[in-house]
Input
Amino acid sequence: MSDFAGKLKEFSVDFNKKLPDLFVFAKGRERQVAEAMFYSLSNGGKRLRPFLVMKSAALFGVSAEKSFVVAAALECLHTYSLIHDDLPAMDNDDLRRGMPTCHKKFDEATAILAGDGLLTMAFELLCGDKNTFEANKKCLLAEKLAKGAGAFSGMVAGQMLDLDTEKSANADNPEELIKHIEEMKTGCLLKFACEAGAIMGDAGIDEYNALLSYARKIGIAFQITDDILDVEGDEMQMGKTLGKDVLQDKLTFVSLYGLDKAKQIAAQLIDDAKKSLNVFGDKAKDLQDLADFILNRRN
Output
């Protein structure tokens, strides 16, 4: 395990230890939806998005104690999207992070409600008393996350395009389309993660733009690596079913560019992403190391 992989693992363990404090479990039968929410939220994961939130905030001296709730809100929203993506009407997956997906562990109706619950919980965390930032920052964070997750130019819109695989594969401009899908489906939440740190830390315009540039580049690289791993990855390491993109004739960066060129593009994006952080000097080492981790990850 690399030094950074160990650091990320340690971060994930610490982050996971704090999650139970965010939940209230009812005594009645309605308890099942909270149990399903917690099952999916606590079920592993590298916690890249919370790491981005908290390390971006740390660039400006914001403590982990203050940024945790914002990071947890983003992870709640991200997990809701995974639960719904796995449903039979969407990607129809049985495994997530090596464990049964929410609808397999519980049932389809409970999974839908668990996703709904996590989505609303994200904004409860951002706007409630657990978030100790001033009201104007709470409102701005909630607005940015809502836009990034939404149906107009955010994650929901990206998922809608991604589901339309047959038309996507035959698009007039597939390169423009796949970048547009990635920007909304994957990139928007990574952008929020970095933008949230800038908001919490009262970043100057150059620092703000540097983080947005970094987020955009690692977002594309992350999706390219995901597409590569769908072809070359190991299902045991990935913890999910692979090879579905080819079976579905799905438009991906690999189908568009081929493996070798896709890898070259990802490597260049990561190099550019790291250069975007020059304004922060040595303070940005964790974010630079994360960029390298995204490029070289095997799961």
